[in-house]
Amino acid sequence: SKDLARDTSGAKSYAVFLAELGDRVPQAVLLNISTLQTQLDGEAYTMRNSVLSCMASIIASVLVSDKTENGVATRDQFLDVLESRLHDISAYVRGRTLQLWQMLMERKAIPLVRLANIVRLVAERLEDKSSIVRRQALQAIVKMLACNPFGDCLKLTTFKTKLEEAKTLLKAKVGDSGMVEEEAAKKKTSKKAKKSAKNSDDEDEEEEEE
């Protein structure tokens, strides 16, 4: 790792090769990812970027459709690494990581349970000290809005229409049984109100007699 940090041209060549390898044969890279992960602790930021690129490619191409326990665990581990690298010491790595999140968002490879936290982490990078990172963070936010899994239309009228449709569907499913229960509840409430009023009248009569 130290040798690669000193030999910048060599590190860049290795990084390009690994990133290309991850794009072309992600399954083969996955089998050897434990060896590559050691580069994440190295000094060469280009190598860290290449390993992160490989992880993102594996998630988007292989693990996104792997629903096995081992597959999900590996995917979550890689996503954790990508999250942590948003705080990498190098602005180039933070910027590259934001690009990778954009790619994952576009490929719909981010689990919904993680989405809110990812948006929060990306938004924090809008205040990064590096203009490179701030620019990438802004682009990532735009990409997340464009690829919003809940629909790219955020108009309130659209959601109101969907709400009314859901209410109509629910009412149709509940049917007459729901209406009967509702009427029974209203009658029960009415009886309680009448009983309470009657008790109040009786108390008033007793006070007058005294």
Helix content: over 70%
| Number of helical segments with 4 or more residues | 10
Report how far apart the termini are: 99 Å
Number of strands: 0
What is the chains' assembly state? single chain
From the alpha carbons, calculate the radius of gyration and give it in angstroms. Answer: 29 Å
Low-confidence stretches: 203-210
Please state the overall shape, judged from the principal axes of the Cα atoms: elongated
Q: What is the ordering of alpha helices and beta strands?
A: HHHHHHHHHH
Pairing-aware structural class of the strands and helices?
A: mainly alpha
Biggest sheet, in brief? none
Beta-strand percentage range = under 5%
Mean pLDDT, as a whole number? Answer: 82
Please name the defining characteristics of this protein.
single chain; mainly alpha; 10 helices; 210 residues; disordered C terminus
Question: Helix and strand layout, with pairings?
Answer:
Blueprint: H1 2-6, H2 8-24, H3 26-31, H4 33-36, H5 45-61, H6 69-84, H7 91-106, H8 112-124, H9 131-146, H10 156-209
Can you describe what's shown?
With 210 residues, the chain is mainly α. Helices cover 78% and strands 0% of the residues. The protein contains ten helices and no strands. 25% of the residues are buried. Mean pLDDT is 82; it is low at 203-210.
Question: Summed up, what is this model?
Answer:
The chain contains ten helices and no strands. With 210 residues, the chain is mainly alpha-helical.
